[in-house]
């Protein structure tokens, strides 16, 4: 069970306690030990994954391959379910757990590393060894794009790191970022499926992507890819990314037809591939909704697909919470508003934080009555009902941005000097600001990676 550190200290009000309950319930519901057990079963030699069935007697070996923040937990749960039916395998992750038959190798996230390159090289070798009599169970989870780097052609790890850093800082969404990464990789964009062919491949996917686009989740290693080299170049141009020469050269050569495209839907590599999304952002939201109802609050899921700038999303969320408090629309208080998805941050400063921390800080400014940029230095919005709206936001993997915090929790008492909060946002340095105000939420790696989870409690 994922626990938020210093929970008793953070739960200073009932609303904060409710928000923390919702966060913990959501993260736990998305853990592989829960969702894989719900989706996978073995009975009389038949493996069932969702609505698909595989007679294990028809295969000479069962191999587990994959990567992502939660991949080791998927592998461990598969071992519990299948036991010695699993012959071998390897997964790459930054959250390792003990396994017996599947090798767990470590990489790094959100920026790829040398150990990730070495681990991915082993993973590709295992895929190459699979033949037509093998069943490959592909454990694909969020974070796989960074954790499974496989620089293609003349692209180096340093080139990948520089390009990834610039893309993450640009405000580009995950689909745009992965369009570039897929065309710089020997694994992404369906190329792992091509390496594993002609084996039968059944993927278990835990989606951290809005809309569950299979080609975007972990950059779609076993999914057809519709993006092109031209699309990747357009992303670099759109966000004015000054990519390393090897990156630009590969993309330009690809656009000119000198490098083969990623495999598309009609590629024979996918003739024996089936993909199964076993959990996504709605999995988390449904559990948080149940937790809110159990505490006597009326829950309302706003959307599982929120995206865009974190601070802009915060303004919209607070406006809805204020409407609930003032008019009972669209739901009567006491209520809990929930949303998922993945917001972004366009970096202009050089501080510490992440999208969820910026969401929370921006929300706290709104709750303090600072939506007009007032500099009164006074907290509260004049309602006489202190802390009547509480806002919490986390990345469900426990890592918000590149910080050690999962996210943050705030209310109308958090901001006492609006200028300081605005300065922290301007410098993208909200981590120390929130830390000083008892606002950071720390969980450590959770084993879950199903987008962001936002909770607004309206008393």
Distinctive features:
glycerate kinase, domain 1; 459 residues; Glycerate 2-kinase; 2 domains; GK-like_C_sf; kinase; six-stranded mixed beta sheet; 15 strands; alpha/beta; transferase; Rossmann fold
Mean pLDDT: 94
Report the top-level CATH class of the largest domain.
Alpha Beta
Strand order of the largest sheet: 6-5-4-7-8-9
Taken from the alpha-carbon principal axes, the silhouette is globular
Strand % is: 15-25%
Named CATH topology of the largest domain? glycerate kinase, domain 1
Largest sheet: 6 strands, parallel
What is the correct CATH architecture of the largest domain? 3-Layer(aba) Sandwich
Q: Into how many domains do the coordinates divide?
A: 2
Helix content: 25-40%
Structure explained in plain terms:
- By secondary structure, this protein is α/β, with parallel strands linked by helices.
- The protein folds into two domains: 7-29 and 281-458, 3-Layer(aba) Sandwich (glycerate kinase, domain 1), CATH 3.40.1480; 32-150 and 185-227 and 262-279, Glycerate kinase, MOFRL-like N-terminal domain (Rossmann fold, 3-Layer(aba) Sandwich), CATH 3.40.50.
- The protein contains 16 helices and 15 strands.
- Strands 6-5-4-7-8-9 form a six-stranded parallel beta sheet. Strands 10-11-15-12-13-14 form a six-stranded mixed beta sheet, with helices on both faces. Strands 1-2-3 form a three-stranded antiparallel beta sheet.
- Strand 2 (46-49) and strand 3 form a beta hairpin.
- The longest helix has 18 residues, at 310-327.
- The radius of gyration is 22 Å and the shape is globular.
- 55% of the residues are buried.
